[in-house]
């Protein structure tokens, strides 16, 4: 019989880009519907218990709307501050929202906070790897844009120098 490979070992066998791609697909498939968000908002308004608040914020943390993602982080941070019993879940949901907002550095930091207390938490490891891969991808894109911009500036400088030399030659 074959043994199943632990999730952490599987992730170590995947490249950070593969982990990022997988997480992005999972998050795309887990988008909450408007109906679900409305139901959770109503339940939270009727009974603003920490559990109802968490369920609403957790659903918001996977939204496609930036305002809802920011609101989720605010709610989840409040739950952590209040000592809500599921701290790692709050941190993970907030890290997910930050990742979806493109704040990869803060998402990574939140994941590292989770992994300090739960080093084998597969979802924390996955989100951490995806955040790092996203940061690297963004940095590579910035370097590429800088190189393109620098090349264009050099080309423009060359044209200006060429025109100046023609003008100088014609003026003599």
From TrEMBL:
<dbReference type="GO" id="GO:0016559">
    <property type="term" value="P:peroxisome fission"/>
</dbReference>
<dbReference type="InterPro" id="IPR016543">
    <property type="entry name" value="Fis1"/>
</dbReference>
<dbReference type="GO" id="GO:0005778">
    <property type="term" value="C:peroxisomal membrane"/>
</dbReference>
<keyword id="KW-0472">Membrane</keyword>
<dbReference type="GO" id="GO:0005741">
    <property type="term" value="C:mitochondrial outer membrane"/>
</dbReference>
<keyword id="KW-1133">Transmembrane helix</keyword>
<dbReference type="GO" id="GO:0000422">
    <property type="term" value="P:autophagy of mitochondrion"/>
</dbReference>
<dbReference type="GO" id="GO:0000266">
    <property type="term" value="P:mitochondrial fission"/>
</dbReference>
<keyword id="KW-0812">Transmembrane</keyword>
<feature type="transmembrane region" description="Helical">
    <location>
        <begin position="146"/>
        <end position="169"/>
    </location>
</feature>
<dbReference type="InterPro" id="IPR011990">
    <property type="entry name" value="TPR-like_helical_dom_sf"/>
</dbReference>
<protein>
    <recommendedName>
        <fullName>Mitochondrial fission 1 protein</fullName>
    </recommendedName>
</protein>
């Amino acid at each position: 019989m074959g043994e199943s490979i632990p999730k952490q070992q599987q992730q170590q066998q995947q490249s950070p880009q593969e982990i990022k791609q997988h997480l992005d697909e999972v998050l795309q498939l887990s988008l909450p519907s408007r109906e679900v968000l409305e139901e959770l908002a109503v339940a939270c308004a009727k009974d603003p218990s920490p559990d109802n608040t968490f369920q609403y914020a957790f659903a918001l943390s996977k939204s496609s709307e930036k305002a809802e993602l920011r609101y989720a982080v605010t709610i989840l941070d409040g739950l952590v501050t209040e000592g809500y019993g599921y701290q790692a879940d709050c941190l993970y949901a907030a890290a997910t929202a930050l990742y979806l907002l493109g704040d990869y550095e803060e998402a990574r930091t939140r994941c590292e906070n989770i992994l300090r207390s739960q080093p084998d938490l597969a979802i924390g490891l996955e989100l951490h790897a995806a955040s790092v891969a996203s940061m690297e991808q963004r940095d590579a894109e910035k370097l590429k844009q800088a190189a393109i911009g620098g090349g264009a500036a050099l080309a423009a400088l060359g044209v200006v120098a060429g025109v100046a030399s023609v003008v100088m030659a014609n003026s003599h």
